[in-house]
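Entry for the shared binder. Reason: the reviewer on the internal report wants the predicted structure included alongside the sequence.
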Amino acid sequence: MLTYSFSNLLDQSFPGALTESDIRSSTAEAFGLWSSYAPLHFVERPDSGPAPSDSDYARGTYPDIRMGYHFIDDETLLAHAFLPWDTDESGLSGDIHFNALNVFAWSVNGGFPAIDFLEVITHEIGHALGVGHILYADAIMQPYHNSRFRGPGTAYLLAPDILAIRSLYGSGVGSVQPMPEPSTMLLLATGLGAALLRRAAARRAPRTPGTPRHRSH
């Protein structure tokens, strides 16, 4: 099992007009894509650890893949990820960083000239899992953004990508377990609270003699 988290990617300051839902759904789709070809199980966890930077930090009990953004002094670089080297010692191993200096518009709908977040996060997750750039064939892991996808649900890997991930982890099918969005959690909590109040009120209500009650077995 590999854990992942959003370190500061959801704080509404990431460059572009991406919503929390955009980022969460695209990231879950990207993880699901890699786990559909290899027995990798991804579970989202609350973030912990230092603010995103390229400075290494001790492994600790932080999530395996922490995704965030910071200023990278190269406006042509969309994002970078750290290969999972020395994972017992390095907390930076497997982390993904987007460039806060990026001057392009981000989108989840694909199409030039916008930068497709889904394509970039799919590529960077490949690096976080240990797949390097593929230069010898057409692949998502080529080092250039190619505007391949056309919105949610359209992501894919090419044969060289699949061969590369299976060479590291073998063939099989994994899973992705995202955490509910805060708005969803609030709705669930509100619904649960209302149900508990109704139950308490029913228990306090006076019963008339002979009123039947349901009985659980």
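Summary line for the report: The beta strands are 2-6, 41-44, 65-70, 79-81, 96-99, 106-107, 115-116, 175-177.
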